[in-house]
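Q: Can I see a sequence and its folded structure?
A: Here is a first one.
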Amino acid sequence: MTRMTTPEPPALRAALANRKPAGAAGGVEIPPVALGCGNFGGVGSSPEFFGGGLTDDQACELMDAAWELGITHFDTADAYGGGRSERAIGQWIASRGVVPQLTTKTFNPMAAGADRGLRPERVARQLQSSIERLGVAQVDLYLAHEFDLDVPLADTLAAFEDARSAGLIRAYGVSNFDSGQLLSALAAGAPAAIQNSFSLLARQDAPDLLDLCQQRHVAYLAFSPLAGGWLTGKYRRGEPYPAGSRMAQRPGPYAGIAGGRTFDLLDRLAVIGHDRGTSTAALALGWLLSDGRVTQIVIGPGSRAQLAPVAEAFEHPLSGDERTAIESALALLDD
């Protein structure tokens, strides 16, 4: 039976505030968990879902709950909800009188048919619009949201360097880059971080990219740590996807894992979690938090209740034997 005990809030806040440096220069330190805000006013950067997702009131309630828990780093992007995510965060900042640490990104279009990419002039324009929507003077971490095949990486990173010199950002990095692209970025500039999808169901960055980040002092930020809800146990073998879930709304990014082997793994993980008294979601987050190469996990809950696995993961850190049991279970995907 799952234990419902919650650690003392001060202890949990202390754990969440245990920051690590991003990048060799050490100009920015980030906590182990960030609140992903991609579902504020949309579902990620997809124009067809702009105006959907969480309403402003729901987003505010979620930010309040995260802040109370001790999550003080918010992650967004200019194109999340076509600007609605950044705007919701800016309204929350103005109304609450506190400023979280902020990551935002650029690459994707702000509307169907709008321009996209990492041209220096576009980077400058988009950063300024992000700052205005957020209502802040500076962004802590600014990321290239995708690799741009049409723009020399050196030109983009030079624009990021200009923004840092101007005090508009504290550090910069990349997102959705592979190891070769990160090496190119390291040759052209000084990215402090990379943010990629990484979870028990998306391990493509292990070990090459994770080891590269450790060797070159690049912070590794894992988004979608619960694989779009798959690692919460909400999707059941032979049953339709729940209404409003990621797989019901936007299945594309996770279609490749919707198979029998995934359900076999989920069954095994549920047993491991049950035996240690935790949810599958907490087990999955704990697996990431126990990997010293992962600097931060970016969670994207849709409600206050969905923050619970974060507290659970910190309350019940994985032992070496439990991590070994999980690694053994992962063989179900590799056979």
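Q: Show me another, different protein.
A: A second, unrelated one:
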Amino acid sequence: MKPPHTNHPGRPGGKGGDRPRTGAPGRPQRPDALDQRDAQRDAQRDAQRDARTQRNGSSQPPSRPPGEGTRMALPQARKPVEAQRVPQRRPDADSPRGTVWLYGTHAVAAALANPNRRLRRLMLTAEAEAAVAARVPQPWPIGPERTERARLDQLLGREIVHQGAALLADLLAPPALSRVLERGGPVLVLDQVTDPRNVGAILRSAAAFGAAAVITQDRNAPDENGALAKAASGALETMPLLRAVNIARTLIALKAAGCWVVGLDTGSATLSGPSLAQRRVALVLGNEGEGLRRLTRDTCDEVAGIVMPGGGSGLDSLNVSAAAAVALYELGRTT
């Protein structure tokens, strides 16, 4: 019997045989058609990307090896976007540690008249110098630098209403609680009131109605800054502003000093000045959104609200600074 016929391994296409595979020994390897198309697409993609890069003025190199363009381009494409998100800081707006830029003619004049303020730099336009001098006659503890409004806009920011007056001063040192209790009048306690303009307006009302002091929380309350001082319209220099680490413990200390602690909240009993005329009141106001916190409310001797005849129309609450002014007026009533 004849052995079964087999093709010669080196013969291409004998009867019943197979063609040699790509990369077979002794044959040059040819690229597959699919690999060629992928390479062409990568080359076209890189060429289009490089053309866009040149139109946009980028500093990236004009060409890259195929397959590396997308991964290498991402970090460099983000850099200009991230750089735009970082605000440009004005070097003059950064005050030294422990100091604050005060602005506005009322706030600056009051600071010039406060012997407890350490003054560092005073910048005034010609009009602002005349306005400040009308409130606090010269000579002042510090000499003014004549400037223009555009310079103050650059220093403080264009959105700041500085009225042509800016004063760099040290922060005020808060007095001890025992010392401010020697003054007459109610004490205002702010439970996480965060808006500096509200705190400033409350300071102004406290000064107008003869309060002894305003106490804020050490955290979740604004620092002494220009916005607060301007809203206080000079009251920051005359009304003691204290900071408490723990509001509930401070209320307990006020009780021990003889104060009757009243929390101000809507939907409670009516705040009545005549009924509290024989007591020294510590009035507690909650923050702009949630009002009094539970622990603060529970520590109060009583919780009362302001009479608002128009509350039936849906307006049953006031801004915290407006509520403070109305409550202080009510506490001042004796009949």
